[in-house]
Amino acid sequence: MAQFLLTKPMLSFQTAALVSLPFSLPFLRRNTRIRISNSLLSSLVSTSSVDYSPPVRSKYGGIQLEETVETGSEKSRLDAWISSRMHDVSRARIQSSIRSGLVTVNGRAVDKVSYIVKGGDIVSCTVSELQPLRAEAEDIPLDIVYEDEHLIVVNKPPHMVVHPAPGNFSGTLVNAVLHHCKVSTFTWLTNSGSLSEEGADCSDEELDVFHVDQFPTEGNGSRVSEALVRPGIVHRLDKGTSGLLVVAKDEHAHAHLAEQFKQHTIKRVYVSLTTGVPKGHSARVEVPIGRDPNNRLRMIATPSSSNRNARHAASRYKLMEVFAGGACALVQWRLETGRTHQIRAHAKYIGVPLLGDEVYGGTKNMAISLLRRKNPSHFHDSISEIVSKLDRPCLHALLLGFKHPYTGEFLQFSRPPPDDFSEMLDFLESITKGGSEG
């Protein structure tokens, strides 16, 4: 099969199974859900020992770079070129520095991250300072799937934001983890404006290791000595997405988990309900993803030739079951990259937006119309009633696997979808069964 360059979208169909899962379709259904212990749910596979010696990352605010682009080198985006010279600074932070006016080319300030530099250009960059944000511990229940002294695996409920951001300082996963770990307050430093409700300005591979000042509870009114620690948000799930997420408890764990995400060795499997049925039993979607120029809160899968800010993104999907006369489908996804809203953007691109995804085209009105059109009239009232209750995209992070940053063992965890997803799945199955009987 021909391979396409990044300037062309790639959608390759395959007959092989996407991934071998340790459970069958009934595992996803609410009425057959089995509650089992963490020790049974996790699968521990021994691997050979690995020598872990991570570089220590530090606060890079104020660090300067002044260098001439090598004569004869290919033209490059400004942010990409600086990133190639400052390996320990995230791409997101370099972009923040550019937008803040801290980068010049040949003595002139440049605030466009996509500015093209060429051989002979003199580039000067000062890394932007981090801005303090504060998070308070909150007594919020957590579904802890696994925990040891180095990390926690959490089953995140839908509607929970992963970490605080301007306008969203409470009720987040970070607030809950602080309480669970008995730390009263975090004040961490991050790029000004780099965090939104769902962290949409950077992908999993380019998350900063947040620098945190920890202030233990002041029982006697005097402040206990401060200690520099690192919080453990290694990757994100969208606010509406439920499922598994790993949180590191120390810098060593964070650095190595982050490196696994960067190298795409983390095993991540998602399940979704889609509006419509994707073509083929399974396929690989390789279409760059960038920010939608018409809506800053939305990403768009598009050939890079038409969106210079689009970045390489690859997903694999497998069709698990078709429901309701082809109106909906249960689809399994595996990510090769970790772009913001990647599954949602790729699903929209191939014509099957996620059921309940009002941002990416899988609206409730569209789903109701499609379901009513493809199914007998005696289902129409219940279709409108059930689908109208959806308040998030039907997407769940089903399986998470990674090497333990200290032992080198491969840990694998799975959790079934929450009730809203399972109830919708049950409903679609009942329509399918009723329609075939009719």
- The best one-word shape is globular
Helix content: 10-25%
Rg, Cα atoms, Å = 23 Å
Tally of contiguous helical segments: 9
Write down the overall mean pLDDT.
Answer: 77
Keywords, please?
438 residues, alpha+beta, eleven-stranded mixed beta sheet, four-stranded antiparallel beta sheet, 9 helices, 23 strands, 26% strand, globular
Structure description:
With 438 residues, the chain is of the alpha+beta class. The protein has 9 helices and 23 strands. Strands 1, 2, 10, 11, 15, 16, 17, 20, 21, 22 and 23 form an 11-stranded mixed sheet that branches. The chain has a 4-stranded antiparallel sheet with strand order 3-8-5-6. The protein has a 4-stranded antiparallel sheet with strand order 9-12-13-14. Helix 2 (78-85) packs across helix 3 (91-99). The protein is globular. The protein starts with 9 loop residues before the first strand and ends with a helix.
Kindly summarize this structure in a few lines:
The chain is 20% helix and 26% strand.
Layout: helices, strands, pairs:
Blueprint lengths: L9 E5 L23 H4 L1 E3 L18 E5 L7 E2 H8 L5 H9 L3 E3 L2 E2 L6 E2 L4 E5 L4 E6 L7 E4 L3 E6 L16 H8 L4 E6 L20 E5 L11 E3 L12 E7 L2 H12 L4 E9 L6 E5 L2 E3 L7 E3 L12 E10 L4 E8 L6 H8 L14 H11 L5 H8 L7 E9 L6 E5 L4 H19 L1
Helix pairs in contact: 2-3, 7-8
